[in-house]
Amino acid sequence: MNPPRRSAAWLAAALALVGCAAAPPAPAPVAPAPAAAGAPTPDPLPVTPVPVPTIVIVPSPAPSPAESTPAPSPAQLANAQPVTPSPVNEEDQQALALLADLQRYASDPGDDLRRDLAGANAALTRTRSDANRIRVAMLLTLPQAGPPDDARALSLLEPLVGKAANGGVSPLKQIASVLYAQIAERTRSLREEQKRTAAAQEKLDALRAVERSLLLERSRNAGGGSAGGGGGTGR
Protein backbone atom coordinates (compact mmCIF):
# COMPACT_ATOMS: atom_id res chain seq x y z
CA MET A 1 0.00 0.00 0.00
CA ASN A 2 1.27 3.34 -0.90
CA PRO A 3 1.84 5.92 1.84
CA PRO A 4 -0.81 8.30 0.58
CA ARG A 5 -3.41 5.59 0.61
CA ARG A 6 -2.29 4.40 4.07
CA SER A 7 -2.73 7.90 5.50
CA ALA A 8 -6.18 8.24 4.06
CA ALA A 9 -7.19 4.92 5.54
CA TRP A 10 -5.96 5.96 9.01
CA LEU A 11 -7.84 9.23 8.71
CA ALA A 12 -11.08 7.48 7.78
CA ALA A 13 -10.77 5.11 10.76
CA ALA A 14 -10.17 7.97 13.17
CA LEU A 15 -13.24 9.81 11.96
CA ALA A 16 -15.35 6.68 12.43
CA LEU A 17 -14.16 6.31 16.05
CA VAL A 18 -14.93 9.94 16.81
CA GLY A 19 -18.44 9.61 15.45
CA CYS A 20 -19.10 6.52 17.58
CA ALA A 21 -17.84 8.20 20.77
CA ALA A 22 -20.03 11.36 20.37
CA ALA A 23 -23.17 11.65 22.61
CA PRO A 24 -26.48 10.72 21.04
CA PRO A 25 -28.76 13.65 20.15
CA ALA A 26 -31.38 14.81 22.73
CA PRO A 27 -34.86 13.41 22.20
CA ALA A 28 -37.40 15.81 20.71
CA PRO A 29 -40.05 17.20 23.15
CA VAL A 30 -43.31 15.34 23.25
CA ALA A 31 -46.29 17.57 22.48
CA PRO A 32 -49.24 17.23 24.87
CA ALA A 33 -52.11 15.23 23.61
CA PRO A 34 -55.05 17.35 22.55
CA ALA A 35 -58.02 17.35 24.89
CA ALA A 36 -60.80 15.12 23.93
CA ALA A 37 -63.87 16.75 22.55
CA GLY A 38 -66.55 17.40 25.17
CA ALA A 39 -64.20 17.09 28.21
CA PRO A 40 -64.89 19.74 31.04
CA THR A 41 -62.40 22.64 31.32
CA PRO A 42 -61.12 23.27 34.94
CA ASP A 43 -62.10 26.64 36.47
CA PRO A 44 -59.23 29.07 37.18
CA LEU A 45 -58.14 29.55 40.84
CA PRO A 46 -59.69 32.60 42.56
CA VAL A 47 -57.27 35.51 43.05
CA THR A 48 -57.73 37.53 46.28
CA PRO A 49 -56.82 41.21 45.80
CA VAL A 50 -54.22 42.57 48.25
CA PRO A 51 -55.55 45.67 50.13
CA VAL A 52 -53.56 48.81 49.56
CA PRO A 53 -52.85 50.75 52.82
CA THR A 54 -54.40 54.18 53.11
CA ILE A 55 -51.87 57.00 53.27
CA VAL A 56 -52.76 59.60 55.95
CA ILE A 57 -51.13 63.00 55.64
CA VAL A 58 -50.67 64.64 59.08
CA PRO A 59 -50.45 68.43 58.89
CA SER A 60 -47.60 70.10 60.81
CA PRO A 61 -48.66 71.89 64.07
CA ALA A 62 -49.32 75.56 63.89
CA PRO A 63 -46.68 77.75 65.56
CA SER A 64 -47.48 78.97 69.07
CA PRO A 65 -48.26 82.65 69.66
CA ALA A 66 -44.91 83.08 71.42
CA GLU A 67 -43.05 81.72 68.40
CA SER A 68 -45.10 83.67 65.88
CA THR A 69 -44.75 86.97 67.77
CA PRO A 70 -41.78 88.92 66.41
CA ALA A 71 -39.13 90.25 68.76
CA PRO A 72 -39.66 93.85 69.89
CA SER A 73 -37.73 96.44 68.03
CA PRO A 74 -35.23 98.79 69.75
CA ALA A 75 -37.77 101.61 69.49
CA GLN A 76 -40.38 99.55 71.31
CA LEU A 77 -37.87 98.63 74.00
CA ALA A 78 -36.96 102.29 74.44
CA ASN A 79 -40.64 103.30 74.78
CA ALA A 80 -41.50 100.44 77.14
CA GLN A 81 -42.46 101.42 80.69
CA PRO A 82 -39.91 100.31 83.35
CA VAL A 83 -41.08 97.66 85.81
CA THR A 84 -41.30 99.13 89.30
CA PRO A 85 -40.18 96.63 91.99
CA SER A 86 -42.55 96.00 94.85
CA PRO A 87 -41.72 98.05 97.93
CA VAL A 88 -39.86 96.24 100.73
CA ASN A 89 -41.61 96.18 104.07
CA GLU A 90 -39.56 98.29 106.48
CA GLU A 91 -40.85 96.38 109.51
CA ASP A 92 -39.65 93.10 108.01
CA GLN A 93 -36.19 94.59 107.57
CA GLN A 94 -36.21 95.76 111.19
CA ALA A 95 -37.24 92.28 112.34
CA LEU A 96 -34.39 90.65 110.40
CA ALA A 97 -31.86 93.13 111.79
CA LEU A 98 -33.20 92.57 115.30
CA LEU A 99 -32.92 88.79 115.01
CA ALA A 100 -29.32 89.18 113.83
CA ASP A 101 -28.57 91.37 116.89
CA LEU A 102 -30.20 88.93 119.29
CA GLN A 103 -28.13 86.10 117.85
CA ARG A 104 -24.97 88.19 118.19
CA TYR A 105 -25.73 89.09 121.81
CA ALA A 106 -25.53 85.40 122.76
CA SER A 107 -21.80 85.25 121.91
CA ASP A 108 -20.54 88.81 122.51
CA PRO A 109 -18.28 89.48 125.53
CA GLY A 110 -19.40 91.61 128.43
CA ASP A 111 -17.67 94.80 127.31
CA ASP A 112 -19.37 94.72 123.93
CA LEU A 113 -22.76 94.01 125.53
CA ARG A 114 -22.41 96.95 127.90
CA ARG A 115 -21.62 99.24 124.95
CA ASP A 116 -24.58 97.79 123.06
CA LEU A 117 -26.87 98.47 126.02
CA ALA A 118 -25.70 102.07 126.27
CA GLY A 119 -26.21 102.59 122.54
CA ALA A 120 -29.64 100.91 122.63
CA ASN A 121 -30.76 103.12 125.52
CA ALA A 122 -29.63 106.21 123.61
CA ALA A 123 -31.48 105.09 120.48
CA LEU A 124 -34.61 104.38 122.53
CA THR A 125 -34.42 107.85 124.03
CA ARG A 126 -34.35 109.36 120.53
CA THR A 127 -36.94 107.05 118.95
CA ARG A 128 -39.25 104.84 120.96
CA SER A 129 -39.78 102.37 118.14
CA ASP A 130 -40.78 98.74 118.57
CA ALA A 131 -37.35 97.48 117.47
CA ASN A 132 -35.55 99.73 119.98
CA ARG A 133 -37.86 98.57 122.77
CA ILE A 134 -37.15 94.91 122.03
CA ARG A 135 -33.40 95.48 121.73
CA VAL A 136 -33.16 97.22 125.13
CA ALA A 137 -35.41 94.63 126.79
CA MET A 138 -33.24 91.79 125.52
CA LEU A 139 -30.02 93.41 126.75
CA LEU A 140 -31.57 94.07 130.17
CA THR A 141 -31.96 90.31 130.69
CA LEU A 142 -28.28 89.48 130.03
CA PRO A 143 -26.08 89.43 133.17
CA GLN A 144 -22.95 90.21 131.08
CA ALA A 145 -24.45 93.55 130.05
CA GLY A 146 -25.04 94.64 133.65
CA PRO A 147 -27.39 93.90 136.52
CA PRO A 148 -30.53 92.24 135.07
CA ASP A 149 -33.67 94.35 135.20
CA ASP A 150 -36.55 92.06 134.26
CA ALA A 151 -39.17 94.49 135.56
CA ARG A 152 -38.06 97.24 133.15
CA ALA A 153 -37.75 94.74 130.31
CA LEU A 154 -41.35 93.58 130.83
CA SER A 155 -42.60 97.17 131.00
CA LEU A 156 -40.92 97.90 127.64
CA LEU A 157 -42.49 94.86 126.00
CA GLU A 158 -46.01 95.16 127.43
CA PRO A 159 -47.28 97.69 124.81
CA LEU A 160 -46.17 95.42 121.96
CA VAL A 161 -47.72 92.35 123.55
CA GLY A 162 -50.99 94.24 123.98
CA LYS A 163 -51.01 95.17 120.28
CA ALA A 164 -50.38 91.56 119.29
CA ALA A 165 -53.22 90.38 121.52
CA ASN A 166 -55.60 92.86 119.85
CA GLY A 167 -54.97 91.34 116.42
CA GLY A 168 -52.12 93.50 115.14
CA VAL A 169 -49.76 90.65 114.27
CA SER A 170 -46.36 91.55 112.81
CA PRO A 171 -42.85 90.06 112.96
CA LEU A 172 -41.71 92.56 115.59
CA LYS A 173 -44.76 91.94 117.77
CA GLN A 174 -44.26 88.19 117.50
CA ILE A 175 -40.65 88.56 118.65
CA ALA A 176 -41.79 90.78 121.50
CA SER A 177 -44.44 88.23 122.56
CA VAL A 178 -41.92 85.38 122.64
CA LEU A 179 -39.37 87.44 124.58
CA TYR A 180 -42.04 88.68 127.01
CA ALA A 181 -43.18 85.10 127.70
CA GLN A 182 -39.60 83.97 128.39
CA ILE A 183 -38.86 86.88 130.73
CA ALA A 184 -42.17 86.43 132.55
CA GLU A 185 -41.51 82.70 133.00
CA ARG A 186 -38.03 83.37 134.32
CA THR A 187 -39.37 86.03 136.68
CA ARG A 188 -42.00 83.62 137.97
CA SER A 189 -39.39 80.90 138.49
CA LEU A 190 -37.10 83.31 140.35
CA ARG A 191 -39.98 84.46 142.51
CA GLU A 192 -40.89 80.89 143.42
CA GLU A 193 -37.24 80.12 144.12
CA GLN A 194 -37.05 83.15 146.38
CA LYS A 195 -40.15 81.97 148.22
CA ARG A 196 -38.68 78.53 148.74
CA THR A 197 -35.40 80.05 149.88
CA ALA A 198 -37.22 82.37 152.31
CA ALA A 199 -39.24 79.47 153.73
CA ALA A 200 -36.10 77.40 154.18
CA GLN A 201 -34.39 80.35 155.84
CA GLU A 202 -37.33 80.78 158.24
CA LYS A 203 -37.10 77.12 159.22
CA LEU A 204 -33.37 77.44 159.73
CA ASP A 205 -33.84 80.57 161.87
CA ALA A 206 -36.49 78.78 163.94
CA LEU A 207 -34.16 75.83 164.55
CA ARG A 208 -31.38 78.19 165.56
CA ALA A 209 -33.72 79.98 167.96
CA VAL A 210 -34.68 76.67 169.55
CA GLU A 211 -31.02 75.73 169.80
CA ARG A 212 -30.19 79.04 171.50
CA SER A 213 -33.06 78.66 173.96
CA LEU A 214 -31.90 75.15 174.86
CA LEU A 215 -28.35 76.34 175.40
CA LEU A 216 -29.58 79.22 177.57
CA GLU A 217 -31.77 76.91 179.62
CA ARG A 218 -28.88 74.46 180.07
CA SER A 219 -26.58 77.24 181.19
CA ARG A 220 -29.15 78.44 183.71
CA ASN A 221 -29.62 74.98 185.11
CA ALA A 222 -25.88 74.49 185.38
CA GLY A 223 -25.43 77.81 187.21
CA GLY A 224 -28.21 77.10 189.77
CA GLY A 225 -26.83 73.66 190.62
CA SER A 226 -23.32 74.97 191.26
CA ALA A 227 -24.66 77.75 193.49
CA GLY A 228 -26.70 75.31 195.64
CA GLY A 229 -23.75 72.95 196.07
CA GLY A 230 -21.55 75.79 197.29
CA GLY A 231 -24.04 76.84 200.01
CA GLY A 232 -24.24 73.33 201.50
CA THR A 233 -20.49 73.12 201.80
CA GLY A 234 -20.44 76.36 203.89
CA ARG A 235 -22.62 74.89 206.55
What does it look like?
This protein has 235 residues and is mainly alpha-helical. The protein has a domain at 92-189. It has helices spanning 3-21, 65-68, 74-79, 90-105, 110-126, 130-140, 150-165, 171-234. α6 (130-140) packs antiparallel against α7 (150-165) and α6 packs parallel to α8 (171-234). Residues 14-24 have low confidence and may be disordered.
Q: Can you write the helix and strand succession as a string?
A: HHHHHHHH
Low-confidence stretches: 14-24
Head-to-tail CA distance between termini: 221 Å
> What is the average per-residue confidence, as pLDDT, rounded to a whole number?
74
Radius of gyration, CA atoms, in whole angstroms: 64 Å
Beta-strand percentage range: under 5%
Annotation field: number of helices:
8
What overall geometry do the principal axes of the alpha carbons give?
Answer: elongated
Q: How many individual β-strands?
A: 0
* Class based on secondary structure composition and strand pairing: mainly alpha
- Characterize the main sheet: none
- The percentage helix is 55-70%
